[in-house]
Write a structure and sequence with these properties.
There is one protein chain. By secondary structure, the chain is α/β, with parallel strands linked by helices. The protein folds into 2 domains: 5-17 and 86-216, 3-Layer(aba) Sandwich (Rossmann fold); 19-83. It contains 11 helices and 6 strands. A 6-stranded parallel beta sheet has the order 3-2-1-4-5-6, sandwiched between helices. The radius of gyration is 17 Å and the shape is globular. The model has no long low-confidence stretch (mean pLDDT 91).
Length: 217
């Protein structure tokens, strides 16, 4: 595999966390006695936490500010990140193999930045990344390619030589349109998106064990 750098998404790609996030907004709305629309979780999926909170507080006229909603949602997620959520099988081994082969890696995530340090430390992969980029510095998230382009810049690689690993269709498309080779990780929470993910990506896989074979190609 002739790749000089790698950029990894976190949720749904390395971390088995989308089951928690996939119905978090619906769960939050029910706390306020609101019956959530069937499509609300999918609607906010491309948004950062801040964007999603601003959207739902305005749309549903919640009795809290967007900042207050964000704080409540992050508090709920923090416990899972610091104590429970596991890496996907084979993910750490893949990262360690990249390091052993001298391939620099970056983490590019729209996960709320405050959740990251404890989770990465608990999972034992904090040292796997030469750069960690979050929505703090890229408020447009992955709807625009800036986060990927900056990650490649920090790794000292060109987009064409830098593989991006993503599970979300919108993010994979952004990276692909920016000139990156993209490898799609199929997550069970987004089965309906798999055909489109396969269309966009250079390669797709059900998991990291399947991708370990690229080191021998």
């Amino acid at each position: 595999m002739s790749i000089r750098g790698m950029i990894f998404d976190l949720d749904g790609t390395l971390l088995d966390s989308l089951g928690m996030w996939s119905n978090l907004v619906s769960h939050f709305l029910r706390k306020f006695g609101i019956d959530p629309p069937e499509d609300i979780d999918g609607e906010v999926k491309p948004m950062t936490v801040s964007e999603a909170c601003a959207y739902i507080t305005e749309r549903f006229a919640l009795p809290v500010t967007a900042k207050e909603a964000e704080k409540l949602i992050v508090q709920h997620a923090a416990e899972a990140y610091t104590q429970e959520l596991p890496l996907k099988p084979g993910a750490e081994r893949f990262l360690r193999e990249a390091a052993a082969r001298g391939i620099p890696c970056a983490l590019a995530t729209v996960t709320y930045p405050a959740l990251l340090p404890a989770a990465l430390k608990r999972l034992g992969i904090a040292d796997c990344f030469q750069a960690v980029l979050t929505a703090d510095d890229f408020p447009e998230g992955k709807n625009e390619p800036a986060i990927y382009l900056e990650a490649a810049r920090r790794l000292g690689t060109e987009p064409a030589d830098t593989a991006v690993f993503e599970d979300a269709v919108y993010a994979a498309k952004t990276a692909k349109d920016a000139g990156f080779p993209v490898i799609g990780i199929r997550d069970d929470t987004a089965r309906t998106e798999w055909p489109e993910l396969e269309r966009i990506c250079d390669r797709t896989a059900d998991g990291w064990a399947e991708l370990l074979e690229i080191w021998t190609e």
